[in-house]
Specification:
Number of strands of chain A: 8
Shape of chain A: globular
Helix content of chain A: 40-55%
Largest interface: A-D, 37 and 36 residues
Structural class of chain A: alpha+beta
Oligomer: homotetramer
Distance between the termini of chain A: 35 Å
Mean pLDDT of chain A: 94
Strand content of chain A: 5-15%
Largest sheet of chain A: 8 strands, mixed
Number of helices of chain A: 12
Low-confidence stretches of chain A: none
Radius of gyration of chain A: 21 Å
Chain lengths: 385, 385, 385, 385
């Protein structure tokens, strides 16, 4: 287990802010063409962000506050880039808590090195057509069949962000044993039998390449079975892992909401209707509406940073709390953009302006598990025990 | 002034329902390509809808309840078609209240005949870049210059639904007199100097061709100055005209919300997540959410039909009331679709399904004047007098 | 079955408005002392309101629009009076639809005559400690034991508005048969064994005497068993009866909200803070808030009157619709008063002013069945069938 | 300036929790009789809380986290007690930041000693009939006239929590100079001419004795003019002072909401409707509603503790942030109790149960400045600069 620094590195945070601003210039085009932000990711690799994403001894990751600032700044500029980097943080951060002689250390180390060296991307592919999201339970239909020296994997995974651009597909599947094991198998780089169906066509986050990945009898050597167990051995993720997940996913959409807020401010300052004879910024009702947006973002910021700082201090809040964070930041981010949208009429709805894109993107915050209803029902049930 | 029947014609209402269902099949393609629904409108003309839209003696219009049912049924299928037909109702319905020897009778009659005969479209073009919407006050920048035998019109009008497909552009402008007159000049069919800038690129209602129309020294004969007055002679529209406007515009978006509701019901019945082992339709929380959508549509329906029936009985509610109707139906329609969207996760947000399109369309209900803030402020001020 | 006039009688409506205004002067005192409004009810009897409440041939009731106007005007002044009169409308209106040779005609006729002659009050007592509200199912614990010439009734009923002031207690109970019958037994005037426990101590509607009534072996002659059946023979109330119930109960709380609105307007006009240098009525934000209150009341009014008029025309809306009406008017009435309360700070919360009383009263709208959750769940389930 | 410990003292926090629980037993009676909680305050003095409220060298105050925990625990039991103690924290905490040779040190020291020794209460009386709240600007009408050896004070102050029980009245007034000074004069203990008008009769916080205090030519010696300046020298309170104020006032109502939540949980566990055949706690919809209440309280807790901890670390958030905290905690606390109220029907509204009292109390959170509209408008205006 590596001991990691928890002080955010100001240089990497600065760089994230600078790149976020630069990436924002291309964000409309990425949305329009639904092109995965490969150039942005290459630039992030050049600028050392993949080192920042990977824990020691390979990189420098460790501070959730730093990760939060990085993902937030990038997502404010271009959220598909922010999402992709957030996934790398999440996939590598378990190294922080992993013993060096744990069985999965070697594979994880190799993946981590490839990230630092080549900017190799990884994602865990979980969702299947039949399942809904697996968080809600159920065995995967994707099957790893035992063969000499390894496994043969067959199945299909939807909503696989980065599909076609991933160096490593970490696939949630089950074995063909009588008593099936479940867990994660990783396809080796360049494995044969991996295909992509370009099915992702959502209202927002259009450049995330969250397409379907197909596995047709893909050979996976024994040492690429990352972590497979009996179903009952899979406990809930621990509170630290959940905190990282919920903080970083939330940071993406909070970043989008901040971009919307900034555009709204510029709009209020710039727009001077003839019949008003002054900028909209002078209208009390609009000032109050902006104040409400600021209030929502203040709540987001306080929840995100106090949680991240607690994690960095070693006192991660319980899952109930971080689940509340996830829902609240999502709701507030949507509400903030929605408010701006409802007050800017034609200007906000026009695709000539970015606000409608921010809105389409921020609506996607809801599709990350857990959904509000699940969170609230679980919290209520817990309070009644 | 023609006396009109007020009993809805069941045949035309039936036909609207049938065509709405048919038009819905093509609605996604129209949205995708942002193509104006010319085929739908041609079909509407063939099926007698332009007669239904024009009052006697040229057609059979007169019942707002009938118009409401027609616009609602068509908009549920394809709202850009519904919007275009609603505009025709609104442009022709003043004939109901116009004296035969009024100065504008002849031009209006000619326009009405062209509608019945050729399905000729008309729209009043009001909005300019500099003005915001004119409802909020201010003189138009578009100028009609007096010349021999008529006028020369120069200016630009944005948000001009049907731009490029209108037989008649009815243009809100002012004269070049020292004490300028303001009002509506109509460009003759095929007039030279009329251009279109394809600037409409909104989140929703993409097939409405609400582009910019430019007028470059367009000659308008004297008898095409439809109604021009001193600015102070323009009173508020009367309560009957406002009722027609607010009821029919509201009917469009209520129709969209009903389409969303129908899809949501189908989704709940069809979708059977593995881990639930039954259709989503069996989940009490989702039943209750659907009940809330039904409640919103019940309010819409009651407001719309009781108002339309009152107008048909000759007792149109005051402007304050019909303005409330406009805001409430818009808010409820948006809320109904939003609720469905928030409960269907990836399925609702995917462009493979129509719900996100309904949502994009219904959000455009807000851009029709008057906006909620204006309505509420005016109503509050009135209550304090 | 009597044929009834459906045109509201302007004289009775005028009188209700006049008396509502007069009753408002004493409303704070009734609230403070939790005294049942016996004087108001006596005055209503003197002024002919008990005739207006009873259908022909005994009285003149028949128009739901008239009843709505009466209950609304009285409740705006003093809602406990309005509630008590609403109950009389509901208890007598079944006579409108009852055949003269129906078994219950004679008892109903006698009760009706006592209302017209003496202002005798009746209420149906349904709720028991153990049951929650019976609408949600379940047999009553109150038992009618067969004895010579009639029955002996024993049990306890809570939330019995008018307890101690009722001439007739109509009690929902079950027989002691092996296969118990259920239904309504009516205690004769002055019956022995009827007691009252002063348990009603709610936040609002404090003067309604909705106390507990106890029945200790009360003798009920055979002809006072109003309507008793096998449990499975009790169908849902018909849509006309539900419409009367939901419209009149809703009218009470809508009336309360209108009283709150009127006070809010006076407050805005009267209050001139030093630092504003003008009346609050000049503040745009407060005008807009008042506009929102007006909008809520507009929706209430439209739902109430269009429903009542439909009932009077013989086309009562389905139960789903009138249930929606009930929830919506309750929600809107609460929201309207809440909005005024949130904007008047210390003034609204002070018991020196009536607004907090209106709020306490209007919150009681929720305790009448059906509750929103039941309504929405049923409507959603119905839409999925 | 005294250096203060910032680690909360577990003993005092424990004691607050214990006393809060004990005080809750008497809270309904205090509410019913509107009696100021003198016994509770005496007990708090006996148990050392007045030492905890006063900074060194007289007491041990200094940690806002500790103060927050104390006020929260007491207010959960009996909020009028919590409010009174919060006021003492606020009135004494400036000593933390005051230089020992500041002109006001001696008087403050004397007041502080009297608190520690006798449990002497102080409050700053600001509000006047004519002014609205002074935060919104304007000179006080209460006048201090210069006389030999001091001043003569005349005026009236409303909303003076603890009126009649205060050892020290700190009165916001102005001098009778041509260029009036404004500031705070303190009436000596037992001063003649101080009267109380029992005018406080609010919906909630009924035992707070927030009555009117009258000053009729009260003599105030020179050394009791605590802090008087030219009007323009009164800057906004600094961010530390605002943070203390907003955190502690918010803690009161958050505490009330927690009491409501606890009762709601007990109600759900205890209540078993016949027709459900199980406790309400088993109903998913109610679990989800409780989850929402938990979520609101989670947000409150995170905002309150992260702000208090920041203040204790010497990095108090800006006024905009702590104003947001104030509004948000107030809104969330009201919403949490309202939700419980709306789901418990008759049980929640009955004065036999505490929920309606919690609701009446929590509504009073809105009357503390600043109101939401002011906060949002200021924040919006600031964001536009």
């Amino acid at each position: 287990m590596s001991s990691a620094r928890i002080e955010p590195d100001p240089a990497i945070v600065e760089a994230a802010i600078e790149l976020g601003a630069r990436f924002s210039l291309d964000a409309a085009a990425l949305d329009e063409t639904a092109r995965f932000p490969v150039d942005n990711l290459a630039e992030l690799h050049r600028r050392g962000f993949f080192r920042a994403v990977v824990p020691p001894p390979f990189g420098s990751a460790g501070s959730l506050v730093e990760a939060l600032k990085v993902v937030s700044a990038l997502s404010k500029g271009e959220p598909n880039t922010g999402l992709t980097l957030a996934l790398q943080y999440l996939l590598h951060s378990p190294l922080l808590r992993l013993d060096r002689d744990a069985p999965s250390w070697r594979l994880r180390a190799r993946i981590a090195e490839s990230a630092v060296e080549d900017g190799a991307l990884i994602n865990v592919l979980r969702v299947e057509h039949e399942l809904g999201t697996p968080v809600r339970g159920g065995l995967p239909a994707t099957i790893a069949r035992r063969v000499t020296g390894g496994w043969r994997l067959t199945g299909r995974k939807i909503y696989s962000t980065g599909a076609g651009y991933l160096a490593w597909n970490a696939v949630w599947a089950r074995s063909d044993d009588d008593a099936p094991l479940v867990g994660v198998w990783v396809t080796p780089r360049g494995a044969e039998g991996v295909g992509v169906v370009k099915s992702w066509n959502h209202l927002g986050m259009r450049a995330s390449a969250s397409d379907e990945v197909t596995f047709d009898d893909v050979f996976i050597p024994d040492d690429h079975a990352l972590d497979i167990r009996r179903p009952e051995e899979w406990a809930q993720p621990d509170s630290v892992e959940l905190a990282w997940t919920f903080v970083l996913f939330s940071a993406i959409y909070d970043g989008v909401a901040r971009a919307a807020r900034d555009w709204f401010i510029e709009f209020l300052k710039r727009r001077k209707p003839t019949n008003l004879g002054a900028a909209l910024a002078t209208v009390p009702r609009l000032q109050e509406a902006l104040g409400e947006i600021e209030r929502l973002l203040y709540i987001n910021e306080t929840l995100l940073f106090s949680t991240a700082a607690a994690v960095d201090r070693g006192v991660a809040p319980a899952a109930t709390q971080t689940s509340f964070l996830k829902c609240t930041v999502a709701d507030n981010s949507i509400a903030a953009v929605e408010k701006a949208l409802s007050l800017t009429g034609n200007h906000g709805l026009s695709r000539h302006n970015p606000l409608q894109r921010h809105y389409r993107d921020v609506l996607c915050s809801r599709i990350h598990s857990p959904q509000s209803d699940t969170v609230l029902a679980a919290a209520g049930a817990a309070a009644l025990r």
